[in-house]
Structures are given as C-alpha cells and as structure tokens.
Design a protein that fits this description.
The structure is a single chain. The protein is of the alpha+beta class. It is built from 4 helices and 6 strands. The strands form 2 sheets. It has a 4-stranded antiparallel beta sheet with strand order 2-5-1-6. A two-stranded antiparallel sheet has the order 3-4. The longest helix has 18 residues.
C-alpha cells in the first residue's frame, strides 16, 4: 500500500530558510536508505506558501484564486514523500527513523493513498482504462 508522508511546515520553512548541510546530508542518506529498501517512490521539498496559490471551488461553479502566503503555518506542507510499504505500522517505523526535518519542533503526517479497489463499482472498467492511460502518459513524461 502507498502512503503520502507529509512534512508539515514551520516558521522557518515558510520564511524560505533552507536546511543546513548537515540536515541535507542526513536526509540524503535517509532517502538513499528508503530507495534501497524499495520504499520511496517519490519525494520533494516545497517552496514557502508565499510562492503558491489556492483555487477555491464554489457550488455555483465559480473559481477563486487566493495567492499565498497562508496564515496557519502548522497546517501547511513543506515537503512530502510517496512510499510503498506493507502497512501503516511499517510506514510509522520508517518515519520514526527519519531525521528531524527542522531544527525546531515539527511534525510529519501520514496519509494512505487511495487505490483503485477503494472506489468499488464507481470505478468502472472504462474509468480504470482511462486511469491506466493517464499513468502511462505521466510515466513517459518522467522518463
């Protein structure tokens, strides 16, 4: 099963303060360990929310763009990994081994990724074929 492992933002990450060389090395070593174990599928750090935007969808069909920065730092995302593991418990164990992402108090959130079987009959054979085509196209973009 796949899990999104979300590094929550801090005041430093929202200020755009980059990690120091020691933390970069520790994260690089951890990422290498994840890849060697066949766990890490993807992972990236994110710029502060001041460089981002949100699009709000209203029930009347309208769309509103809100530019960052966003106020609630503790609710923002500073980075993520996508991991393939056997269970939530295995994912938690990997997170416990992770270097602390920041020099201040911080948090990592773990969320399971939906798989096709989670959608039941609503995910028709036609929609499954479309999903497969989209994934193949996306894989070609990364190759």
């Amino acid at each position: 099963m796949r899990f999104m492992v979300i590094v929550k933002a801090t005041k430093d990450s929202e200020a755009g303060t980059p990690p120091d060389e020691k933390l970069m090395a520790a994260m690089g070593n951890f990422n290498e360990e994840l890849v060697k174990a066949g766990v890490m599928l993807a992972g990236e750090g994110l710029h502060p929310s001041s460089k981002g935007a949100r699009v709000r969808f209203a029930t009347d069909g309208s769309r509103t763009v809100v530019d960052g920065p966003f106020a609630e730092t503790k609710e923002l995302i500073a980075g993520y990994w996508l991991w393939q593991v056997k269970s939530l418990e295995e994912c938690i164990e990997w997170v416990r081994r992770c270097p602390a992402p920041f020099a201040t108090d911080c948090e990592i959130e773990i969320r399971q990724v939906y798989e096709a079987e989670d959608f039941g009959e609503a995910f028709t054979p036609e929609l499954r074929e479309q999903e497969e085509r989209v994934r193949q196209m996306a894989a070609k973009l990364q190759a």
